[in-house]
Q: What sequence folds into this?
């Protein structure tokens, strides 16, 4: 028997019931289970917790960790910190967007990839750098990026 999203959300809400300051950890846990926070999810959380949808959306839109759309199976993070930017990060991002046929910070239609431009990956000596899921790639060129992406 398949557990519905409503059952999953209700189970998470029940874990936090009666506690103060539950909204952020509750949203984190729901997103961890469902992948993102849909409009229906937000409405259900609001109904069950008596927290207004406006307050929930205020938190979701303030913190970049929260997503309101599905993400891809593979998360590509392209560093745009100073070292990477100077070493060619804009060209790396453009090569990725071109290879995947998506716009800036987009997700492919097949939900295979989501690309995020990030402030820093903490590996400046490898500039320009990117991560795909938990694997770091450095000293990139547009051609190297296309080859790496094709391996996924």
A:
């Amino acid at each position: 028997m398949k557990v519905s999203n409503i059952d999953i959300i209700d189970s998470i809400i029940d874990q936090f019931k009666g506690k103060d300051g539950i909204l952020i950890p509750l949203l984190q846990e729901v997103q961890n289970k469902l992948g993102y926070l849909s409009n229906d999810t937000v409405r259900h959380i609001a109904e069950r917790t008596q927290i207004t949808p406006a307050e929930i959306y205020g938190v979701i839109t303030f913190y970049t960790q929260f997503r309101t759309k599905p993400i891809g199976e593979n998360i590509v993070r392209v560093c745009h910190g100073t070292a990477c930017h100077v070493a060619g990060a804009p060209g790396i991002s453009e090569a990725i967007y071109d290879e995947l046929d998506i716009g800036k910070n987009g997700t492919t239609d097949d939900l295979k990839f989501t690309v995020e431009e990030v402030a820093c990956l903490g590996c400046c000596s490898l500039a320009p750098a990117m991560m795909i899921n938990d694997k770091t790639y450095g000293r990139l060129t547009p051609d190297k990026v296309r080859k790496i992406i094709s391996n996924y």
